[in-house]
Amino acid sequence: MVPLDVLVMQLSPNLLVRQVITGISIGSWLFLVAVGLSLIFGVLDVLNFTHGVLFMIGAYMAVVTTVGGGGVPGLSLILVPLVDVWPLHPFWLGIVVAGVTVGLLGGIVESGFIRRVYDREPLDQLLLTFAFVLMLTDLTRVVFGTGQYAIRPPEVFRFTIQVTEGVRVGGYRLFVIGMAVLIMLVLFTVLDRTNIGRVTRATSSDRDMASLLGINVPRLYTGVFIAGAVLAGIGGALAAPLQSVTTSLGNQVIIYAFVVAVIGGLGSFVGAFVGAMIIGLLLALGSQIIQGGGTLFPYVAMIIVLVFRPEGLFGEVEA
Amino acid sequence: MSVLELSDVDAYYGNSHVLFDMEMAVEENDIVVLLGRNGAGKTTTLRSITGTVPRRTGSIVYRGRDISRDSVDRISNAGIKLVPEGRRIFPTLTVTENLQVAHNACSNPRDIEEMFDIFPVLDDLRQSKGQNLSGGEQQMLSVARALVQNPDLLLLDEPTEGLAPVIVKDLMEVLSDVVEEDVTVILTEQNVNFSLELAERAYIIEKGSPVWDGTVDELRDRDDLLEEYLSVSAAE
User: Fold this and answer.
1) Which residues of chain B lie closer than 8 angstroms to A115, CB-CB?
2) Coiled-coil segments, which residues (chain B) (predicted)?
3) Exposed e or buried b for every residue in A31-57, given b needs 16+ CB within 10 A?
4) Which residues of B touch A211 (CB under 8 A)?
5) pLDDT in tens, B85-142
6) Hey, where are the domains in chain A?
7) Are strands B153-157 and B184-188 parallel, antiparallel or unpaired?
8) Nearest-CA residue of chain B relative to A206?
9) Chain center to CA of B68
C-alpha cells in the first residue's frame, strides 16, 4: 500500500486547497439530494429511486426559467408571463419554480402510486420507483429535447474570494455551500423543535402507535415525500449553474446520493451531511491522485462501510 | 345506549382466524376486564376495537356509530385511546415530547402539566428519552400519553405485564383514581387479583369467543370458572 503522505505529496499545497474547496462544494449539492432521500427513507421506509430524476427536473425547470421561460412549448405559456412580473433575477424564480413543480410531481407520485406499496416488500417499491425513473427521464427528453443546457449564476455571484495565494473560490460555489448548511440547520431545527418535527420523528419510530394517537399517517407520509421532493428540486436548481444539464443527470446523482446515504446512514441528516462531504472530498481529491479515477473512491468507501458498519456512520441500528 | 357494542365480530391475522362471533356490550363508566389464557383473543378484541387487526368483520358500534370500517386514526379521534401491550413509547423522543405528540394530535386534550401531577415519577424525567426509562416508568408514560388525550373509552392491554410488584401497586393507585373519573375502561390482564380489584365487570374469553360474563363479585365466588378458564386455583 502506498503511504498517504506520498499520495498527498503529488498535490501541491495550492492544488490541495483548491480540491478541498471543490470537494466541499460538490459535497454541498450532493447533500441537497441525499438529505431528501434520507428523509423519505427515514420516515416512510421507502428507497425512492425517483429522487435523482426529481433533482434533474428541478435543474431543467431552473434553467428554462432563468433563460426567460421561452423555448419549451407549453411551459413557456406559463413561465414567460411569470418571468415578466418577477422583480428579481429570474434565477431566483427558477429555484421557486423548481421546488414547486418537483414538489407537486412528488405529491402525485406518492399519493397516487407509492402509497399503495408501503406494505409490500422492498423489491416492489424499488421496481415501482424505478419505473418512474425511466418514464420521467423519457418525459423530460420529450419536453426539453436531448440537448445540453447550461446557465450562468446571477451577476451578484460573479466575484471570487482569495483563500490562499493563487487559490480563489467563486461566489456561487460559496453560495451553494452556504445553502447546504442553511438547509441542514433549518431541517434540524424543524425536526427537533416543532410539533410537525416531533410527529415526524414519532411516526418514523412507530407508525402504528402514531395512528393510535390519532395522527393521520398517510397524510404525514405525503407531506414528508413532498418535502423531500422539494429539497430535490431546489438542489437541482442550485446545481444547474455548476454543470451542464442533461437527461443523464438524474442517474449520476441518484447513485452518488445512495452512496452518501449508505455512508452517512440512511435516515440520518447529520449522516447525510458528513457523508456528502466525504464523497465530495473523495471525488475532488481522488481525481488528482489517480488521474481520471476519482470516481473509484466513493464506491470503495461505500464497500468498506457496508461491510464493516452496515448501519452507516450515523445510522441507528434497527432494534 | 351502550358506549360500545361488539356483535358477531370475527378477526383474522392473515390466514389465522382468531376471534369468532365476539359479543360484548360496555356501558357508560363501566370498568370491564377481559380474562382468559394466553392466546384466547383478549388483545385481538382490543385490536379489533382500535382497528389495528389486519382484518375484522361484524359490527363494532361506538356511541351509536359503526366504526368497524374506520381507519385507526379516525377511531382514536373519536375518543377511544389504547395503552398498548409492550407500552410502545417513542424511544427517541423525550418524556415531554412523547406527551406533546399525543397532546397536539388531540382536539380536546388535557394539560400536560396535569400528567406530571398524576405521575410525579415522570416529572423528574421530563428530558429523558423514552428508551432510557425503566419498564415501570415507561408504563406510567404510556398511561399518561393516553390520559393526556382525554379518553372517553380507555383500553389498557396488559398494563402490569413485566412490572415489579411494587410498581404494580403504584399503577393500581393511579388507575383507581383514573377510573373514578368520567371514563369507560376495558382492560386485559393476566394478573387476576389486579383486575378483580380494579374492574366491576368481567368477560371470560376462550378460543376467541366469550364464554362467560358477569360482575366481578359474581366471579369471585365462581372458583370453577377461575380454575377452568384461567388456571387460577381457588386457594389464591
Assistant:
1) none
2) none
3) bbbbbbbbbbbbbbebbbbbbbbbbbb
4) 52, 71-73, 76
5) 999 999 999 999 999 999 999 999 999 999 999 999 999 999 999 999 999 999 999 9
6) 4-308
7) parallel
8) B90
9) 18
Nearest CA among B36, B62, B37 for reference residue B48: B62
Alpha helices of chain A — where are they, by DSSP H? Answer: 4-9, 13-44, 51-66, 75-85, 90-112, 122-144, 171-193, 195-205, 207-212, 217-239, 249-264, 269-289, 296-308
Segment (H or E) for B147 = helix B135-147
ipTM: 0.93
Distance CA B196, CA A2 (A): 75
Nearest to A65, CA basis, from A84, A51, A52, A45: A84
**Cα–Cα distance between B177 and B55 in angstroms, integer?**
35
Which CATH architecture group holds A4-308?
Orthogonal Bundle (1.10)
Which residue in this structure is represented by grid cell 386455583? Answer: B233
> B81: which chain A residues are within 8 Å (Cβ-Cβ)?
212-213
Q: Which amino acid makes up residue A46?
A: V
Radius of gyration for chain A, computed over Cα atoms and rounded to the nearest angstrom: 20
Joined together, the cell numbers standing for residue A142 give 420529450
